[in-house]
Amino acid sequence: MNVTTISEFRKNSKKFIDQMFKNEDILVISRSKGKSAVIMPIDRYNEMDATDYLNSSKANREWLEKGMAQARTGKTIKKTIEELKKYE
């Protein structure tokens, strides 16, 4: 995570954004009299958004945990793309 001030970000925004993408990191912009802000690649934001949605309810979390446990213990079924298309 990189941190900069709002003043430095204004002066060098392109440099900071390019560095953020290069390092696949987030950028925190601090303000002297206010709350800080975060800039991140949209893909990383979307991943967080999807994770938040999947963990949004107890039932979803339990279902995901059960599926992950089954995958770890090899309790999975292999299907081809053609087989899955039958369910469309």
Describe the structure.
It is a single chain. 58% of the residues lie in helices and 12% in strands. The protein is of the alpha+beta class. A 3-stranded mixed beta sheet has the order 1-2-3, with helices on one face. Strand 2 and strand 3 form a beta hairpin. It is elongated. The mean pLDDT is 90.
SSE diagram, text form:
Blueprint: E1 2-5, H1 6-23, E2 27-30, E3 37-39, H2 42-54, H3 58-72, H4 81-85
Parallel strand pairs: 1-2
Antiparallel strand pairs: 2-3
Compact summary:
This protein is α+β, with helices and mostly antiparallel strands and 88 residues long. Helix content is 58%, strand content 12%. It has a 3-stranded mixed sheet with strand order 1-2-3, with helices on one face.
State the main characteristics.
12% strand; 58% helix; alpha+beta; 88 residues; single chain
Mean of residue pLDDT?
A: 90
Beta-strand fraction estimate: 5-15%
Principal-axis shape equals elongated
User: What does the main sheet amount to?
Assistant: 3 strands, mixed
Strand-pairing-aware structural class: alpha+beta
Order of helices and strands: EHEEHHH
Termini separation comes to: 43 Å
Q: In total, how many beta strands?
A: 3
Helical run tally:
4
What share of residues is helical?
Answer: 55-70%
